[in-house]
Design goal:
The complex is a heterotrimer of chains A (466), B (308) and C (297).
Chain A (H helix, E strand, L loop, with lengths): L1 H64 L3 H17 L3 E8 L3 H17 L3 E8 L5 H7 L5 E5 L3 H6 L12 H4 L4 H6 L1 E2 L2 E2 L2 E13 H6 L11 H15 L4 E2 L4 H10 L17 H12 L5 E2 L9 H6 L5 E5 L2 H8 L1 H6 E5 L8 E10 L6 H12 L1 H10 L18 H7 L5 E3 L6 H17 L4 H17 L1
Parallel strand pairs in A: 1-2, 1-3, 7-8, 7-9, 11-12
Antiparallel strand pairs in A: 3-11, 4-5, 6-9, 6-10, 6-11
Helix pairs in contact in A: 1-2, 10-11, 18-19
Chain B lengths: L2 H7 L3 H35 L2 E3 L6 E3 L3 H8 L1 H32 L6 H13 L2 H11 L5 H8 L18 H27 L3 H9 L4 H28 L4 H7 L11 H10 L4 H28 L5
Antiparallel strand pairs in B: 1-2
Chain C lengths: L2 H46 L4 H5 L8 H5 L7 H8 L3 H32 L5 H11 L4 H15 L6 H4 L6 H12 L3 H9 L4 H12 L1 H16 L3 H6 L8 H12 L4 H34 L2
Helix pairs in contact in C: 4-15, 5-9, 5-12, 9-12, 12-15, 14-15
Classes of the chains: A alpha/beta (466), B mainly alpha (308), C mainly alpha (297).
Chain lengths: 466, 308, 297
């Protein structure tokens, strides 16, 4: 009996401790929220105060000076406008987070925006992956602004859940954006989002390893033939894989376009995987796997950038996102790295990955929302968010040769005119999955390119047919 | 009294109070249960006959089309194969290991509590944490391959080696990890079962000069049958529904869906491809399979004469 | 005794004696070997949570973080500090604690009420209801996953605490547990209390509830643990990262952000695992009792 009592006491003790921890935690959390809130209300209160003081002062002056009836009416009008403007608009901005550093940058941007627009408040919500924005749209509680990846865009646009932006943007402004990116967010002639930045695939190569293999460190490969031969040379002379690449559809597609091939028709309703040039590109690309190039997993790394940083390979086809990654995490390799555009085939092409800022069709504050996305994709906005930070490329052509851009990014940016957006129509995710299945078969199971492409076409056409 | 009269009786006087109190006690759970279990179940059946893309509320009636499509779905076949393979390997292994551990730990040895605690620890840890830990251990240059190198085996890149040409290492890795993490849980059940076998049986057997093996075979095993049955049923239901580990460690990969399970496939169909109706149909097919499996087990056990 | 019998008896004695001698050490060896397999991942992870980024991915693997050897204790908690400061981490812990505690307290109350009602109170349809409840335990979660999601979307409960707490208050498993327990309490006790003029509710509150302490303890522990480790619920219903619970958060950290910096991932995992481990070690008696209660039908 007594031992039961003491265990019972233990239970109570632990419960009390937990309760204290929770209360501490909630108090801490509540106070941080409270202080945030009170700061904001204070700011707004002072702003409102200033505005109404101004209004009063104007009215007084008008009285003293003995203004005419019309002038008083004008002043009345202005006062009503001011009254309306003192309604605080809250915008919900939703994007996925690439880590605490990026979130900090965004918060700073929102602060700047809020200072410039005192009656708009921005609430920053982060979510993890794209599918989940659907839940909010379905429930009718979608945020005012959210990210839309290019591969998801068609579905959103076709279902009419995004607000068309043509009424807000000027033609002149529109012309400053990289056309391929704008196309990704255009549906039936209307624009549904502004690309906030983009990334392309390019080549990273280790100059030191080049020299060791007898290659010229200042001459990265620029053609398919050079890529193949350089990689083979490194394989034989140094005994490490000369080239590491990703193995899914966005890694193969650039080569399709570079060979003059196509993947889908322009309106996404038929697969063109059996086009001769397309098949040929798969034949070349998949054929060299395992002998000339390898995957990141083959060398024990989690992704291509890591494989390159760990010095497991001399060349890597990767995106500009790898640039700051190598710089931070692998400084010794960074010092030896050269960055170049992708080797090109008969045509120039690369893959562009982009995300737009779009406005929810059911938003209550379309003008305020437009102001925010305009701000964030503006010349200055992108300069700060994208160019300075160096994790992506700006979507404005006018920023292409900005002096503050990292030289490595500038190299990658050169390819903007040749980039193809990563987009597959309404059934994007299924089409990608079907394509990846066949690519895997070609790479690992020895399926011939012709068969793989034929099966790909059958599968994709079936998906499109519904 | 007839049933109807009994029913009416239960509403009279004191009995009425008791009935009302009974209902009051179960009110909240029952309401929640109907709203969030029964409701969704019925809704799920209905939705499986429609096409619904979730972005808008437009639902198109398609009748049995979703169910017919399942037969043509190559990925579903692979997922089903993976899930069945997983169940067939994990359930017996887990049960045998759990039983073995229970037998060992039941001996009167010092530190039995320590061992029991250690074996049970993985079961109280979140499957997510275990997946993350093992993701690290299973790396090509990780601890597990390091230990394997001691016995001269070059460990594969467990979670990323594409199969073919390799065997399905990723699925094997997840199997081993799961056996490791849940056998402790079932061990405790076996322990309880073992401890409920009255000593007198063993004493009588010893007097009859039965060998250890005979004691085990004719006393322990039969008397453990109810627990074994319980463990097996629970394991089957559990293994047919694994999701967490796949989501955290492999996302269904590495090649051609080598670790995609039926639940993961449902997830993909619903939340990646926006085919809610189709996903619901698959879920019901899965239910049918589990139901049949459980019924078959029941029948087998009844025929073997276990008290149930 | 016939001579042949004595002869075989001696031989058998020798074998059994040998067996008796090695039996104990053999059992110990097996148990220890198996224990090694079971705790190595945990111990190694704890060590890993203190390593540097290079050390944690090194091969051959590092076993002792260098700071243990060099005694650089000032950097000991660096990984933990970094996770702690990471944007949402504190919020995730708060969410996990809040949800787990709320559900546990709710279940303690409602499950014992319902369990008692199903066990000892008589009301029409009692047993049929119970069978229905039990039956749903067999239905795979996947079936209710999607329509549940739709219902919560319609109710506006997504990205709120309601979706995680309220449905969890009706845990069939817990009601089942309490019912089993109350069935083991003899009816005479119940009848005696009735005869003493105690009201039905009074019986419950003053007698049955205190009696159920061990079962309640087991229930509380299991419910808390189950909620703390719940992954699929938050994954499905929470898209706002501020509303995530800890398991979801560290998965994201592991796969997306700190993929290469596994030492941080391990530190985060320890945050999730240690509370349950500690609770377990203190209350392991109740854990085991709890399982036994459900296992024996």
């Amino acid at each position: 009996m007594s031992s039961e009592a003491t265990t019972w006491q233990k239970v109570v003790l632990v419960a009390v401790i937990i309760a204290i921890l929770i209360s501490a935690g909630s108090i801490y959390y509540a106070t941080t929220i409270m202080s945030e809130l009170s700061k904001n209300t204070e700011n707004q209160a002072t702003l409102i105060g200033t505005m109404s003081d101004l209004a009063d002062a104007t009215a007084d002056i008008a009285e003293d000076v003995g203004t005419s009836l019309e002038d008083i009416a004008l002043i009345q009008e202005r006062l009503t406008e001011l009254e309306k403007a003192t309604k605080i608009t809250v915008l919900r901005f939703s994007g996925w987070s690439a880590g605490p550093v990026e979130e900090e940058k965004y918060r700073k941007m929102f602060m700047e925006f809020m200072l410039l627009n005192p009656f708009i408040r921005v609430k920053y919500e982060t979510f993890e992956s794209h599918e989940r924005i659907l839940t909010q749209i379905a429930a009718g509680t979608a945020p005012d602004i959210f990210y839309v990846g290019s591969e998801w865009a068609p579905r959103f646009m076709s279902e009419g859940v995004l607000l068309p932006l043509d009424g807000y943007i000027t033609a002149e402004d529109k012309a400053d954006f990289v056309p391929a990116l704008l196309d990704a967010f255009t549906w039936e002639g209307k624009l549904y989002g502004l690309p906030k930045d983009f990334s392309v695939l390019g080549l990273a190569y280790n100059k030191q390893l080049f020299t060791a293999a007898g290659l010229d460190p200042d001459k990265p490969p620029t053609t398919w033939a050079e890529l193949e031969s350089y990689a083979n040379t490194i394989n034989t002379t140094l005994g490490i894989p000369g080239l590491v690449q990703g193995t899914d559809i966005p890694r193969w597609l650039p080569f399709v376009y570079q060979n003059g091939g196509e993947f889908l028709t322009a309106n996404f309703n038929e697969s063109l995987a059996t086009d001769t040039n397309t098949v040929a590109s798969l034949n070349w690309w998949a054929g060299l796997y395992g002998s000339t190039w390898f995957s990141a997993a083959d060398v024990g790394a989690g992704w291509v950038g890591e494989a390159y940083g760990m010095n497991k390979t001399a060349m890597a086809v990767t995106g500009n996102w790898a640039i700051p990654y190598i710089k931070e995490d692998f400084p010794e390799v960074w010092a030896d790295t050269g960055w170049a555009v992708m080797p090109m085939g008969t045509e120039n092409a690369t893959m562009a990955f982009t995300v737009s800022l779009s406005i929810w069709e059911g938003t209550e504050n379309p003008e305020a929302a437009w102001k925010l996305i305009d701000f964030m994709t503006s010349y200055d906005g992108q300069k700060e968010l994208v160019v300075d930070w160096g994790h992506a490329l700006p979507s404005r052509i006018s920023l292409a040769d900005h002096p503050d851009m990292w030289p490595e990014h500038a190299t990658f940016m050169q390819q903007y005119a040749d980039s193809h957006a990563f987009i597959f129509g309404i059934y994007g995710s299924e089409i990608m999955a079907a394509a990846n299945t066949e690519i895997d078969a070609a790479l690992y199971a020895g399926k011939t390119a012709a068969d793989a492409c034929a099966d790909m076409k059958t599968a994709i056409d079936a998906i499109i047919a519904g | 009294m007839s049933r109807y009269e009994k029913f009416k009786e239960s509403f009279k006087g004191k009995k009425l109070r008791e009935s009302l109190l009974g209902y009051a006690f179960i009110a909240l759970p029952l309401v929640i249960f109907f709203a969030f279990s029964v409701g969704p179940i019925i809704f799920s059946v209905i939705v499986s006959f429609y096409k619904w893309g979730i972005l808008t509320w437009r639902m198109d009636f398609v009748g049995l089309e979703n169910y017919m499509k399942i037969l043509d779905d190559r990925v579903f076949i692979v997922a089903l194969r993976n899930t069945l393979l997983y169940t067939i390997v994990v359930v017996p292994s887990q049960t045998l290991i759990a039983m073995g551990l229970a037998l060992l730990a039941n001996q009167k040895i010092r530190g039995a509590t320590f061992f029991k605690t250690t074996y049970f620890t993985p079961a109280v840890t979140s499957s997510v944490v275990i997946s993350l830990i093992f993701f690290w251990l299973y790396m090509k240059e990780g601890l597990i391959n390091y230990f394997l190198s001691f016995i001269g085996i070059v460990g594969p890149n467990w979670l990323f080696a594409t199969s073919p040409p390799n065997p399905n290492y990723a699925l094997l890795a997840i199997m081993m990890m799961n056996i490791w993490s849940t056998s402790g849980y079932y061990m405790v059940m076996f322990l309880a079962g073992l401890q409920s076998i009255p000593e007198v049986f063993y004493e009588a057997a010893r007097i009859d000069r039965a060998s250890r093996w005979q004691r085990f075979r004719y006393i322990t095993l039969p008397l453990l049958k109810p627990v074994t049955y319980f463990v097996v049923v629970l394991s089957v239901i559990g293994t047919m529904q694994i999701f967490d580990q796949v989501y955290v460690m492999t996302r269904g990969g590495p090649y051609y869906y080598s670790t995609t399970t039926v639940i993961y496939h449902i997830w993909n169909k619903a939340f990646r491809d926006f085919k809610m109706g189709y996903a619901s149909a698959i879920a019901w097919v899965l239910f049918a399979i589990i139901f049949v499996a459980t019924m078959v087990q029941r029948k087998l056990v009844k025929e073997a004469g276990v008290l149930y | 005794m016939n001579p042949p019998r004595t002869a075989t008896k001696t031989k058998r004695n020798k074998v059994t004696e040998l067996w008796k001698r090695i039996k104990r050490p053999l059992i110990y060896i097996i148990l220890i070997a198996v224990a090694f397999v079971y705790f190595t991942p945990f111990v190694y992870s704890i060590l890993g949570s203190f390593m540097t980024t290079r050390e944690v991915r090194a091969y051959p693997p590092t076993f002792l973080p260098s700071k243990f050897i060099t005694g650089e204790w000032s950097t000991l908690l660096d990984n933990y500090a970094e996770i702690w400061r990471a944007m949402h981490f504190l919020r995730w812990i708060f969410n996990s604690v809040f949800v787990a505690v709320s559900v546990t307290i709710g279940n303690l109350f409602f499950a014992s009420l319902a369990g008692y009602a199903f066990a000892r109170l008589k009301f029409p349809g009692r047993d049929k209801f119970f069978m229905l409840l039990l039956g749903t335990m067999m239905i795979p979660g996947a079936v209710t996953m999607i329509p549940g999601y739709i219902i919560y979307a319609r109710l506006g409960w997504l990205d709120t605490y309601y979706v995680l707490i309220i449905p969890a208050l009706a845990s069939v498993f817990n009601i089942f547990l309490m019912r089993q327990f109350y069935q083991t309490i003899p009816e005479d006790l119940f009848d005696a209390a009735r005869m003493d003029g105690c009201s039905l509710f009074g019986i419950f509150w003053r007698i049955m509830l205190p009696l159920a302490r061990p079962a309640l303890a087991a229930l509380a522990i299991y419910t808390f643990m189950g909620q703390w480790n719940n992954f699929m619920g938050p994954l499905l219903y929470m898209s706002d990262m501020d509303m995530w619970t800890l398991p979801l958060g560290i998965t994201w950290i592991g796969r997306e952000t700190y993929f290469e910096r596994y030492n941080i991932v391990l530190a985060g995992s320890m945050f999730n695992a240690l509370p349950t481990l500690i609770v377990f070690i203190i209350f392991q008696k109740y854990f085991i009792k709890g399982i036994a209660l459900t296992g024996l039908k």
